[in-house]
Amino acid sequence: MLDTALNWLHQGIAPIPVLYQDKRPAIRWREFQKRLPTESEIKSWFSVKRNLAIVTGWRNLVVVDFDDFQAFNDWQIKSNLPATYSVLTARGVHCYYFLENPINGFALPGIDVKAGGGYVLVPPSVHPSGVSYVPLDKSAPILSVDVIGDILDVPAGAQTVTKPKPIRGNGWGDLVSRVKKSYPILDFFPNVKKSGNGWYVTKCPYHDDRNPSFWIDAKRGLCGCFAGCTKLPWDVIDLWAVENDLSIEEAIADMQDRM
Question: What is the pTM of this model?
Fold first, then answer.
């Protein structure tokens, strides 16, 4: 995994660590949209078992994520484009391209375009289902095209939308509930000590904590710091927002996208 991460770095594309057999970043990754990590950082990240992702948008890299093989096959027949570097995922295919100019990510029916503001898992990462990401052809190059319209039929302005906004109104509470159920709070803390029935403690990740002062209530999905780093209890959405430098609405959208 380390060699693969360094190879992406040497191509001018930022690799980041992701929790093993997961899609969640193992670090606060937003700064690596603007700067490449150092080799020392990468060696530190991958000194333990991790998945590997790359930050899309570097060198105007986009990854066209087809939700299933049928969508990929239909597009392949219609587009008649030369083969580019592509990866088999748990459900479909990722196709990699370099564009002339940067764009933000956006979604079409059955297709998710990962570009500025996103990241994708790359081989040899393992999907949460246990399926490994595998390149269709390791030697295939990443093709360069002028615009995204050379690859897909894109409605005008579609590429300006980075992520779908979470729904409001009657369905908002249901969405928040589904997101919380999909992300067990203990998954955010790899080293915890049980302190009671459903209660755990660990060292606070937000200050220099010599003695465990961060509490986790696994039953209610809440946590907090006795030293005051959290003025109110946090849930998994608060954690995701803080760790990824997002607003609450952006965190819900991001978590929903990865469910």
Answer: 0.65
